[in-house]
Design brief:
globular, alpha+beta, 97 residues, Arc Repressor Mutant, subunit A, 6 helices, 3-stranded antiparallel sheet
C-alpha cells in the first residue's frame, strides 16, 4: 500500500466521511452511504471505487445492491493512519478546508 495514494484517498471529504461510517466493521450499502452523505449514486460509487482501489474497503454484490466494508487484514500502520484521520473532529476538518 502506497502512503501517497492513501493520503490522497483520505483527503477528499466525502470519502473520509464514508470511511468514518464504514470503519465500524459493518457492511454498508451504497444507498445508505448516499443518504447519510447526501451524495448521488454515481458520485458515491466513484468515491467507493477510489477507496477500494487503494485497498481500504472491499465490496460484495448482493442482488442489485453493492455493500462495502472495511478491508480485512489491513496492515496495522494503515489502520493507525486511518484512525488518526478519523480522530480529527469534523468541525476541524471543515475549518482546514
Amino acid at each position: 500500500m502506497n502512503p501517497t495514494t492513501i493520503f490522497s484517498a483520505l483527503a477528499e471529504p466525502v470519502r473520509l466521511e464514508a470511511l468514518r461510517l464504514i470503519w465500524d466493521g459493518q457492511e454498508h450499502c451504497v444507498c445508505e452511504l448516499m443518504k447519510k452523505l447526501g451524495a448521488s449514486q454515481s458520485r458515491m460509487s466513484r468515491h467507493m471505487t477510489a477507496l477500494k482501489s487503494v485497498g481500504l474497503v472491499t465490496d460484495r454484490r448482493d442482488a442489485q445492491w453493492v455493500r462495502y466494508r472495511r478491508a480485512p487484514d489491513l496492515p496495522a500502520t494503515v489502520v493507525a493512519l486511518v484512525d488518526a484521520a478519523l480522530a480529527i473532529p469534523v468541525e476541524q476538518e471543515r475549518q482546514a478546508a
